[in-house]
Amino acid sequence: MPNLHIKNASLSYSNKPIFTNLCLTLPANQWTCLLGASGVGKSSLLRLIAGLAFGHGAQANGDITSSDSLPVHHRVAWMAQQDLLLPWLSVIDNVTLGCRLRKEPLSKDKIEQAHHLLRSVGLQQQASSYPRELSGGQRQRVALARTLMEDRPFVLMDEPFAAVDALTRLKLQDLASELLADRTILMITHDPLEALRLGHSVYHLQGSPATLTEPLYPQGSAPRSLDNEQLMALHGHILEKLRQEDV
Ligand SMILES: Nc1ncnc2c1ncn2[C@@H]1O[C@H](COP(=O)(O)OP(=O)(O)OP(=O)(O)O)[C@@H](O)[C@H]1O
Q1: Cα angle 35-210-232, degrees, rounded to a multiple of 5
Q2: Could you tell me whether strands 58-66 and 4-13 are parallel, antiparallel, or unpaired per DSSP bridges?
Q3: What pLDDT, on the 0 to 100 scale, is given for residue 70?
Q4: ipTM score for this prediction
Q5: Measured between alpha carbons, how far is 38 from 229 in angstroms, rounded to an integer?
Q6: How far is the CA of 169 from the centre of ligand 1 (A)?
Q7: Nearest protein Cα to ligand 1, atom 6
Q8: pLDDT grade, residue 174 (50/70/90)?
Q9: Cβ-Cβ contacts under 8 Å for 234 (sequence gap 6 or more)
Q10: Domain hosting residue 107, numbered range
């Protein structure tokens, strides 16, 4: 998988700078996690990387490039806090939604692949169910299968596990860590523990205009166990920093 390079990313709304000349490299096969207070500009940075449009009054710039020199924008998958499943489609049809939207023929291989992915997220029995019949955690697992079905090298995640209970969140973290191990990932989270469990590096976006701090590099391989002493110490340290920032 390629690295993703973000150079001189700048964004302002109505001439108010949100961030200016941000630079960040997302290493291949790694999770880069991004913490930061509400409104600091995390989701906007993700939008800029994905090449999504900003509303009226926004000025966005930046070089988003890949180490393999191929264009980035159409090779990005997005996973959000809301599962964004279409309620009128079955689980399997939601997993193959990308093919449908692009009007690609749904070959036997593709359908088999979708079933295989549902098996990997533990939902093979629910292929014909509808989203309303699933729990929040199950729905987010379908969203994960759909992300994997798209098979994009770059995965941008905006608080993907924020809407589920603590135990389901831990399970989803473990599953995503395993299934997305070979991608280049940027994940936004408000949960320092989640960043420390999953991230190879953990950045903090802070200030106005926002800047990135030096990254933390949690030890050991992800997903890290909750009884990892270094992880718990770093967790306390980050929470304290966030608390000071909040006053
Ligand atoms: N369309 C818009 N017009 C004007 N300002 C905007 C617009 N969209 C976002 N902003 C402002 O840009 C800033 C960054 O927003 P963004 O959604 O990126 O923050 P965030 O760090 O992701 O916040 P959260 O953690 O709450 O999701 C915020 O101060 C927000 O008010």
Answers
A1: 25
A2: antiparallel
A3: 94
A4: 0.95
A5: 28
A6: 25
A7: 13
A8: very high
A9: 192, 196, 216, 218
A10: 4-245
Q: Please enumerate in sequence order all residues whose Cβ is within 8 A of that of 143, keeping only pairs 6 or more positions apart, or say none.
A: 79, 83, 84, 85, 160
Residue 82 maps to which CATH number? 3.40.50.300
Helix 136-150 and helix 108-120: axis angle, to 10°?
140
Parallel, antiparallel, or unpaired: how do β-strands 58-66 and 201-206 relate? Answer: unpaired
Half-sphere exposure of 55 (CA within 13 A, CB side): 3
The residue length of the chain stands at 247
Please tell me the distance between residue 45's alpha carbon and the centre of ligand 1 in angstroms: 10
CA 47 to ligand 1: nearest atom? 18
Q: How far is the CA of 18 from the centre of ligand 1 (A)?
A: 8
Task: State how many domains the chain has.
Answer: 1
Please, are residues 156 and 76 in contact by the beta-carbon 8 Å criterion?
Answer: yes
What was the pLDDT predicted at 73? Answer: 87
